[in-house]
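Assemble and predict.
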Amino acid sequence: MSDMEDLYQEIILDHNKRPRNFRLLEHPTHHAEGNNPMCGDEIEVYARVEDGRLAELSFQGQGCAISRASASLLTEQLTGKTVEEAHAAVADVLDLMRDADRTVDFMNDGEIAALTGVRKFPARIKCATLAWHALEAALNGEEAISTEG
Amino acid sequence: MSLSSKAPFDPATVRDDFPILSQSINGHPLAYLDNAASTQKPRVVIETMNRFYAEAYSNIHRGVHALSQQATELYDGSREVIAQFFGTNDSREIVFVRGTTEGINLIAQSFVRPQAGAGSCVLLTEMEHHANIVPWQILREQVGLDLAICPVSDEGDVDLSEWKRLLVEKKPLLASFVHVSNALGTINPAKEMIAAARKAGVPVLLDAAQSTPHFPINVAELDPDFLVMSGHKLFGPTGIGVLYGKYGHLSVMPPYQGGGDMIQKVTFEKTRFKAPPERFEAGTPHIAGAIGLAAAVRYLQSLDREAALDHENRLRAAAEEGLGGISGLRLIGRARHRASVVPFILENAHPHDIGTFLDQKGIAIRSGHHCAQPLMRRLGLPGTARASFTFYNTMEEVERLVDEVTRIERFFR
């Protein structure tokens, strides 16, 4: 598979065209905005935490196919997880996107592994990790993060 | 129509003057369509600078030795060349700065700040580049200056009647506007806008960063009080640019940066400053940069610029027609008069994705807000994809762009 096809494989195109949980949450307990000024991605991540679990996740905003797909996959993958599991998942995904030597394993890594193609396009790593940074910020009670400064 | 002894303009041969253009990117011949961001350099500019460093380099102005005198002559000679290029006989009106951005900061601090206070304002437009917004915001923080903003239509034209009204109503200390918008391609009616300001007694700063590459700029004809431009956008090196200022203004302005070379006499108690332009050139300048910029100017003057502009306009028209025919594509910026800058968006693909796909085929464009976030917000866009052409681009490159964007649209549909 060519590098480009890797990067924009079916999973990503699907999640870009039909993003899951692309809506406002009625009563979010946590919320943060992620900004990638370099390319104009703006993602807002909403979470409703109940009994230590991410009962509901959603996102809004505009951005490139990579950032939208990543946010969509995030909401699918982390809904129902505990807050601790979510923190661990964020750290793991950030590592997965950056570490070119780490082997990709769809079974363990989940559909988000579809985004590991960004490793060959360093300018796009920030797109893939934006929503995850935003969720981390939200869970830590911060309002906004930016990939620049 | 000038009686030109220049050779007829040939896009194919002029391309050979630019060594960087003959390479391949990702297995495809480079199509460099990002000229609004920065332009490539002709061999003569590169060689002039290299030769300077190899044969004639020294610090200027203070040495009695041969190299220093040679370097000084080359530097001062560059200032003369550039003064002529902009249509002034007085080379004291040419200040070398790092670029447009530094030039605007200089005017903000040295011309406007001494007069500014709460209640005073500067007049800008909605389509300004951040370089012509942020320095004024910094001034606002420092002294409480207001920003008055002239609106822009959906097509990307400045509202001229509003411009005239704001000049009179707001009585700004300075009207500062962009000649050609890097984000939209709009060519503003600079002569008319400057005349209106002059009539209202308002001094004008013209941001010519994006206009000087396309057509000749004559300060005697346009009559701005100040003009700023960047060398790297004019086929010259980075780190050098020009602030033009009427001598009457410059001579009464306090310095911008203090240091060596801008002083007559220094004691710890008191220091006497030099006259312009040296007053505004503290420290050792980018000597090679100034020389390189003069070489770029001389190169441009060796071309039939009218024919080059015709060629650019033909490329623009072809790109607009080709891209405009793609369903789901919207051309942004449809001002009455446009430079060869073609911004567009696709319904189903983000500019960043468009740029990545094009890069894979060796086509370089720019995606994003183009340092004009307020304008993007005004147009309701997160950003655009922007192809920008200059005289060394070809019809073939336009066709490649249109073909690939067509494929991209289909892929994301």
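The CA atoms of residues 1 and 36 of chain A lie 28 Å apart.
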